[in-house]
Every structure is written in structure tokens, then in C-alpha cells.
Amino acid sequence: MASRFKFWLAVILAIGFLFFCDAYLGEYSLGIVNNIAIFITLAISYNLINGVTGQFSLEPNGFVAVGAYVAAILLLNADSKLYQFDAAEPSNIILAIYTSNFILAMFISGVCATLLALLLAMPVFRVRGDYLAIVTLGFGFIIQLLAVNFPAFTNGSIGLNEVMRVDSNGDLSRFTNIFYSGGLAIFATIVILNLVYSKFGRAMKAVRDDEDAAIAMGINTFATKTTAFCVSAFFEGMGGALLVGLLGSVSPDQFTFMFTFLLLIIIVLGGLGSTTGAIIGTVLVIGGSEWLRFLDEPMNIFGYQTEAYPGLRMVVFSLVLIFVMLFARKGIMGQMELGDLFRGRRK
């Protein structure tokens, strides 16, 4: 009972933090918090399949790209599409679909990513380990190539721009705000934590620890992995919609393997299998890289004026990551959640 109270207290505090950010933060700081919130959703959903279920998957860039493109196509009206499509004439299907409801566009993006995950599950989960990583890595490349080579649907390598709403004053504004990005991060955290602590969550951990033993115990490992894969894809697709709503544009170059690699760094740093660790890792990686941006600029150190060294922040940030991983081999949280840490319980 006490743990349940603490959980919902944390949720209420998180919601209060969103209102605080909206009221007191400037546009630049609010943009950083928005970005962190989006990557929290992406990291904890990726951690569900990679950390909790133990499947070495490298697919997030593909599902996020699907979500981003679906949202952009839905949110741009026919006139905007006719104006923007330079690589080829837009398909009649693309011209016909439109909604100004961002929440609906987010949900449809998540559903499309989920359906794609369900379609991929059969061939993907016929293999394990490193072979699974290769198959899912190939999927990410395929999605990127399809975005380039089907210009009638995606506008090719040019991508889609000006994905923005018109406010009451007739000005353009971004679809994504702190309540959408932060609200989805909170909702995704609640869903995934409840899933992890359920009977199904124990089955996912059994698959991670020893899949053959799980099969011997009567666990349907294919259904378990497929469900985790689809839940992960759903939130990654919605995260893609939030990204395009924040940036106002989408192009194939945004979703290279480096996008997946960034998420992999986040969940490994936080601790594979720990949702709390994924959140902490996101704040450190996404927020830390922005906080260290001053290192790229000229600095006054004890009266000595230094030159600008572009890229220095990434060198320092990489050294910090190396230092953390040397002293925390299983990540910051290991496989523990925040509640387990307070109770002194290890999993």
C-alpha cells in the first residue's frame, strides 16, 4: 500500500513539474525539456524489448521513422503537400488523408508502428542473439531506403517540412508542447512499469534470463517477445510523432543507425532492464549534452581567454560516459527500479 502511494505521489509530482515548466521556463529551456521527455518515452519503450525481455534488437530508428512520417502526412493538408512535393507528384492516398487533431495523429502513428512490428515478429523472432540484432538492423536501413525511394509518399530525400499548426492569431506554432511530450512520457512509464511488475513481466524476465528454461516451464516465448516488441513499437511510433511535432519537419537523414545507437547508450548507461535507469540515462545523455554546450564556445578561465573548440563538449561527454561505465559495469541502476533501491532489494 505504501509503495502504491509513493508511486502515485511521484506521478502527481511529475505532472506538477510539467505545469511548472510551462509557466516558468523560456522557449529554449522548454525545448530541451520537451526533447528529454520524448527521449524518455523512446528509451523506456526500447528498454522493454532490449533490457527487460533481453532481445538484442536494433530497430528503434525504423519504428520512430514510421511514426514520424505517418504523423507528418496526417497533419499536412492537401495544399501543403502539393506545394512541398518536389521529388514526385504526391499519391492520391496521401492527398486524401488529413487531420488537425495531433493526439489522433499520434495514436495512428503508434498503431501503424505496432502493426508493422506484428508483421515483422514472425521472421524476426525465428533467430536469437547477434542474428536478431542483424535482422532488426537491416529493418532500420530498409525503412530509411523506402523513405528515400518512394517520393510519392514521403517526398524522397527532401522530406516533409512546415508540419505546424496555425494558432488563433494566424501564426504558425509547433504541435508538440510540454503537456503532450511529458504526458506521454508519464503514461508510457506507468504502462511499462505495470507491465514489468505483472505476471507477464515475470515471463519477459524469464525469457531474458534463460529462454530454453522458460520454454521448459511452459512459457510461450514467441507470444511474450512479440507482445513486448509491439508495445515497444507503439510508444516508439508515438514518440516519432512527437519528434516531428517538435521539429516541424521529417527527413530520412534523421533516422540513421546513430539514432538507435543513441538510445542504446542511454539504456546501457542507465542499466539494462531498469525503467528508472532509462529515465536517468535520458536526462544525463540528452540534458547533459546540452548543458555542456558552453564548452564549444570561447571561455574565460581565470582571466585567460580561450578559443572556440567545436566538438569539445562531445569529447568531455564521452569521457564522462567512459568514467561512469568503468565504475558501474551494469549501468547506474543495474536491473533495479527506484523503489527497489529504497527498499534495499536487488533483482
From TrEMBL:
<keyword id="KW-0812">Transmembrane</keyword>
<dbReference type="InterPro" id="IPR001851">
    <property type="entry name" value="ABC_transp_permease"/>
</dbReference>
<feature type="transmembrane region" description="Helical">
    <location>
        <begin position="7"/>
        <end position="26"/>
    </location>
</feature>
<feature type="transmembrane region" description="Helical">
    <location>
        <begin position="32"/>
        <end position="49"/>
    </location>
</feature>
<keyword id="KW-1003">Cell membrane</keyword>
<feature type="transmembrane region" description="Helical">
    <location>
        <begin position="178"/>
        <end position="197"/>
    </location>
</feature>
<dbReference type="GO" id="GO:0005886">
    <property type="term" value="C:plasma membrane"/>
</dbReference>
<dbReference type="GO" id="GO:0015658">
    <property type="term" value="F:branched-chain amino acid transmembrane transporter activity"/>
</dbReference>
<feature type="transmembrane region" description="Helical">
    <location>
        <begin position="308"/>
        <end position="328"/>
    </location>
</feature>
<feature type="transmembrane region" description="Helical">
    <location>
        <begin position="261"/>
        <end position="288"/>
    </location>
</feature>
<dbReference type="Pfam" id="PF02653">
    <property type="entry name" value="BPD_transp_2"/>
</dbReference>
<keyword id="KW-0472">Membrane</keyword>
<dbReference type="InterPro" id="IPR043428">
    <property type="entry name" value="LivM-like"/>
</dbReference>
<feature type="transmembrane region" description="Helical">
    <location>
        <begin position="61"/>
        <end position="78"/>
    </location>
</feature>
<feature type="transmembrane region" description="Helical">
    <location>
        <begin position="131"/>
        <end position="158"/>
    </location>
</feature>
<protein>
    <submittedName>
        <fullName>Branched-chain amino acid ABC transporter permease</fullName>
    </submittedName>
</protein>
<feature type="transmembrane region" description="Helical">
    <location>
        <begin position="93"/>
        <end position="119"/>
    </location>
</feature>
<keyword id="KW-1133">Transmembrane helix</keyword>
